[in-house]
Amino acid sequence: MNYMLANMLLAILPMTRWFGLKRRILRALGIVIADGASVCGHVRFYGAGQVTIGHDTWVGPATEFHTASGADITIGDRCDIAPGVAFVTGSHDMGDAHRRAGRDIAASIAIGAGTWIGARAMILGGARIETGSMIAAGSLVLAKSWPANTLLMGTPARAVRQLDGGQ
C-alpha cells in the first residue's frame, strides 16, 4: 500500500468531485474501495494495515485512517462519515514511570453498514459498531462492541438510546 502517494493525490484533486477517478487511484494503491464509494479531498491514510471502504459510502474531507500491521479498518456499505473523523487502530499498554507509553498494541476497527459518524468523532482500535448506528459529532468511541441501531454520544461515548431498526 502506498499511502503517501494516495495522500498527495487526494490533496490536489477536487474536494468533492472526480470520485470515480479517486476510486481507481486508491484501488491501484492498495486500498479496497467498493463501487459507488465517495472519498473527498484531504482524506489521509497512515500505517501498515488494510483500509476497506464499502459500497455507496461517503468519506468526508479531512478524515484520517491510522492503521497498524494486523489492525485493519473496515467501513461497511452505505455509511456516512462527516469531516474530520479519525480512525486510530494503534495505542500502547501503560508503561512504568520511566516511560508511560509502554508496549505497542493495536486492534482492528469495524463499522457496520448504514452507520452515520458525525464530524470530528474519533474511533479507537477494538471498536466494533454494528449496523445502522449513529455516532454524535465529537464523540470518542473506545474499544467495545456496540449493538446495531445505537446512538453513541460523548467522550467517552456511551449508548444514549436505541434507534429504530426499520428500513
> Quaternary state, please?
single chain
Average of per-residue pLDDT values: 96
Largest β sheet strand count, sense and barrel closure: 7 strands, mixed
CATH fold-level label: UDP N-Acetylglucosamine Acyltransferase, domain 1
Apparent shape:
globular
Judging by the overall fold, what is the CATH architecture? 3 Solenoid
Instruction: Give the helix tally.
Output: 2
SSE string:
HHEEEEEEEEEEEEEEEEEEEE
CATH class: Mainly Beta
* Proportion in helices: 10-25%
Query: In order across it, which strands form the biggest sheet?
Result: 2-5-8-13-16-19-20
Distance between the termini: 36 Å
How many individual domains? 1
Number of strands: 20
**Spans of at least 5 consecutive residues with low confidence:** none
| Beta content | 35-45%
* Rg: 16 Å
Q: Which structural class fits the helix and strand makeup?
A: mainly beta
Keywords:
167 residues, mainly beta, UDP N-Acetylglucosamine Acyltransferase, domain 1, 7-stranded mixed sheet, 6-stranded parallel sheet, 2 helices, 20 strands
Q: Mind explaining what this structure looks like?
A:
With 167 residues, the protein is mainly beta. The protein has one domain: UDP N-Acetylglucosamine Acyltransferase, domain 1, CATH 2.160.10. It has two helices and 20 strands. The strands form four sheets. Strands 2-5-8-13-16-19-20 form a seven-stranded mixed beta sheet. The chain has a six-stranded parallel beta sheet with strand order 1-4-7-12-15-18, covered by helices on one side. A hairpin with a 6-residue loop joins strand 10 and strand 11 (101-106).
